[in-house]
Design brief:
The chain is of the alpha+beta class. The chain has helices spanning about 5-25, 30-35, 40-45, 50-75, 75-80, 85-110, 115-130, 135-150, 155-170, 190-205, 230-240, and strands spanning about 175-185, 205-215, 220-225, 250-255. It has 3 domains: about 5-35, no CATH class; about 45-170, no CATH class; about 175-255, Histidine kinase CheA-like, P2 response regulator-binding domain (Alpha-Beta Plaits). Helix 4 runs parallel beside helix 9, helix 6 (about 85-110) runs parallel beside helix 8 and helix 7 (about 115-130) runs antiparallel to helix 8 (about 135-150). The longest helix is centred in the middle third of the chain and has 26 residues, at about 85-110. Residues about 10-25 have low confidence and may be disordered.
């Protein structure tokens, strides 16, 4: 194929314009960047472990975020109206999300360009990933933020955040929320039966959160918070021992 003079001049001009960018493209390629990676680059993310004030700052930020989140999460007005499992577990989710927000701000402080990445990751997980309950989504976001910190070589913050989050989750999950459903109680005994079941739960170390009675159906629902070490078999045995036969009914459980 023979090139016309006009086509040849146009092609030459195009090559002249693109040649510098093509030459520099190789310099910016991943292979060249990897070849330039040194021991200083490897140790850059760990140098902050030697700075006590840097670690203290990260710990104070995370602790204050969790504390302020707890102040809002455990507002007494909201807690008095809570009945469902979701409402009683909501404070845990609020605290974890406050911690996620603090970590996102720490990342944005170090790498401002990561703000859009964090926003995209959060939206993808919240609306495109089935992770179960809201608090499970919070833990997933928390783990993702720790991964982002590691990827940005913010190792001190990642280590402090992991340790702090581990202790926080252990404290939040120290007690579990349960509901006991008692059916088949005589109508004339419904009030006495309710008091007896409440007393048995309190004696076992539980905290009663709410109660509902249905006199017509002869049923009682009691929501309570129980220590982790207290199992339902122990509570069933305590009901048998502490509650008179005429006040007992058929017990069913729900746990969260």
């Amino acid at each position: 194929m023979r090139m016309t003079p006009h086509f040849a001049r146009a092609l030459a001009a195009l090559l002249t314009l693109t040649a510098p960018s093509l030459a520099h493209a190789d310099d910016d390629g991943p292979g060249i960047a990897a070849a330039r990676f040194t021991a200083d680059d490897f140790l850059r993310g760990w140098s902050g472990l030697q700075n006590g004030w840097y670690l203290a700052d990260a710990l104070v930020v995370l602790g204050l975020a969790a504390g302020l989140g707890a102040v809002l999460a455990y507002h007494p007005t909201v807690r008095r109206k809570a009945w469902s499992f979701e409402q009683h577990d909501q404070p845990k989710t609020v605290i974890v999300y406050a911690l996620v927000g603090a970590l996102a701000a720490l990342v944005g402080r170090e790498e401002k360009s990561m703000a859009y990445v964090i926003f995209g990751i959060g939206g993808l997980m919240r609306f495109r990933t089935d992770v179960g309950e809201a608090k499970d989504t919070g833990r997933l976001l928390l783990a993702t933020m720790v991964g982002v910190l590691v990827g940005l070589k913010l190792m001190p913050v990642a280590l402090v955040a992991t340790g702090f989050s581990w202790l926080l989750i252990a404290a939040l999950e120290r007690q579990r929320t349960e509901q006991v459903h008692v059916q088949g109680i005589d109508r004339e005994h419904i009030t006495a039966a309710s008091e007896a079941y409440r007393a048995a739960l309190v004696d076992a170390g539980c905290t009663v959160l709410g109660e509902r009675k249905n006199v017509l159906k002869g049923t009682i629902q009691i929501m309570f918070r129980a220590p982790v070490e207290l199992d339902r078999g122990t509570l069933d045995a305590r009901f048998e021992q502490r509650i008179a036969r005429e006040l007992r009914g058929s017990v069913d459980w729900e746990v969260r």
